[in-house]
């Protein structure tokens, strides 16, 4: 009898957890997993440091990059379709401007129910930049408490948050690149001009 009660309690707890995860996913979908909203200024607030595991189990600190690189924190989830539409463009920017001092840190918001799909999804999308696991939503709570997905945070070389961007629709990648170029400065403008030159001559 005691054993059956324990099983029942465990089952109820499990059902409550699933319901909560579903509610959070629905909230995120309604809030940000769709149309985009760009250029929200933050007044130059200092970006708080954090440490998360990457897909190889290594601990990555934001402070490893602060003051050295322009950083784009990309909050995404495997259940978010616009996120997966945006990621290939972020990968292209990471490759294009990496040598100029730009890095993307992907932060997966997946919980226990879907976290096992993060690695295969990242591989399928051809991601080469670090993907970090925020299963306990500690970093999400710092930067993205509304659980928007996707949600981008642009951090300048000075370690301050320059701007944020919520959601993604096709064509937004040009505005994202413009913000990256602005933060990188002259080196990125030269790289962008060089990349555009062959297209202009065609």
């Amino acid at each position: 009898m005691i054993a059956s009660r324990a099983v029942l309690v465990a089952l109820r707890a499990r059902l409550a957890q699933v319901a909560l995860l579903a509610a959070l996913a629905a909230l995120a979908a309604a809030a940000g997993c769709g149309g985009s909203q760009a250029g929200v200024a933050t007044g130059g607030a200092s970006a708080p440091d954090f440490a998360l595991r990457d897909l190889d189990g290594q601990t990555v600190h934001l402070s490893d990059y602060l003051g050295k690189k322009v950083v784009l924190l990309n909050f995404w989830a495997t259940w978010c379709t616009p996120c997966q539409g945006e990621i290939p463009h972020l990968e292209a920017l990471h490759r294009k401007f990496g040598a100029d001092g730009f890095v993307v840190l992907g932060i997966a918001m997946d919980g226990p129910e879907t976290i096992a799909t993060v690695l295969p999804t990242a591989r399928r999308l051809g991601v080469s930049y670090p993907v970090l696991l925020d299963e306990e939503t500690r970093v999400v709570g710092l930067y993205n408490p509304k659980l928007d997905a996707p949600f981008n945070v642009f951090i300048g070389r000075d370690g301050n948050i320059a701007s944020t961007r919520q959601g993604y629709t096709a064509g937004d990648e040009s505005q994202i690149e413009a913000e990256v170029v602005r933060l990188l400065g002259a080196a990125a403008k030269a790289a962008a001009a060089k990349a555009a030159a062959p297209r202009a001559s065609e």
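The helical segments are 2-31, 81-97, 118-124, 138-143, 173-184, 186-201. The CA atoms of residues 83 and 120 lie 15 Å apart.
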